[in-house]
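Weekly puzzle thread! Below is a chain. First person to post its structure in C-alpha cell form gets bragging rights.
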Amino acid sequence: MIKRILVPLDGSRSAEGALGHASLLARALGAEVELLRVVNDPGRRGPDEPADPLAWRLADARAEAYLSEVAGRLRKPGVRVKTRVREGVPSEEIVAAIRGGGHDLVIVTDHGSGTRAPTVLGGTALAVTISAGVSVLLVRSRDEPPSPDAFEYQEILAPVDCSPRGDWALGVAAGLARATGARLQMVHVLAIPEVLSRDPSGDTMPAPVEEIREGNRRAARQYMDEMARCLGGEELEIEGLIVEPDGGVARTLNRLATTRASDLIVLSAHGRGAATEWPLGSVAATTLLSASQPLLLLQDMAGEGAPAGVLEDRSAKSSPRPRTTSRHQTG
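Winning reply:
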C-alpha cells in the first residue's frame, strides 16, 4: 500500500490541485507526504550567461519559505509532511527524487506554472508520468483548487479486464475505497471481437462472434461478483457494471467517469497481454491522454508475470459478501 507520497510544486495554484489528494490519502493511509520544489536557473538571462550565486540563494530561500507555508496547511494530527528543495531541470530532478526517496506514489497536475500550451499534458507532467517508475496520480488542474481540508472521495472507478494485473489494481482500489469511505465502482468494457471480413453486406453480427461476446459478458459478471466476495466486507459498497464500448475502451471509461462524476479512476499501467518494456500499455496511455477525471496509474513495474500483491487464490477467500450489484449498461 502507499506509504510515501511525493508532491512536486512549482508555486502555482494549478499545481496545488494535487494537495487535496495528498492530504486525503495521507490521512486515510497513514502515509508520509514530501513536498518538492525545483529551482531552475534563477536570474539567468541567456544560456551562455553564468549563474548568479546570489540569485540561487534567494530562489532557494523563497522556495523553502513557500514549502514551509504549504506544509503548515497540510499538517494535521497523524499527517507527516516533509519538504525538499532541489536545483536543476524540474522533470529530471523530480524523477531523481522519486528514485532516490523510496516513494510509492507521485501526485502531479497536468499543467503547472508554465505557459499553458494547447496540449493535454504539460511537458513536466508527461515526463514524470513516463519516467517515474512508480505509481502516478494525475490531477486535472483547476483555476481554484479545492481545499485539502474539505476534500474527499465519494466514488472510485476501477476498470477491470479479468487479468492478474487487473486483480492487483482492483485490490488497491478496494483498499483506497475502504480507507477513504468511498464507493467502489467496478466497470468492464465489453470489447467487440475483431472480425476480418471484406463483405459489407448485412448488419447482423456473425453468430460465433455474438456467442463470444455473450460468453465474455457472463465471465465478466461472474468475475466481478467473485472479486466483490474476495475484497469486500459490509463496510465497503461495491457495484459491478458492464458497458458497451463507445469509440474504444479509454473513451468509454472517460465518458462513464465524467457522467458519474467519479472522484478517481484507478487503472493498472499494463493490462492483459501488455508489453511491459513500455512504461504504459495502450489503454493506460490513451486514458492518460483523454480522461478528464483524476487518474491513478498503478505502475506494476516492467517484468514477467503479475505484480506483487495479486490475489492468487480467489476461491480461498471467504470474506462476507458486501453490498454488490452487477448490471449491464448499453451506450
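Puzzle host: Confirmed. Bonus trivia for everyone else. The radius of gyration is 22 Å.
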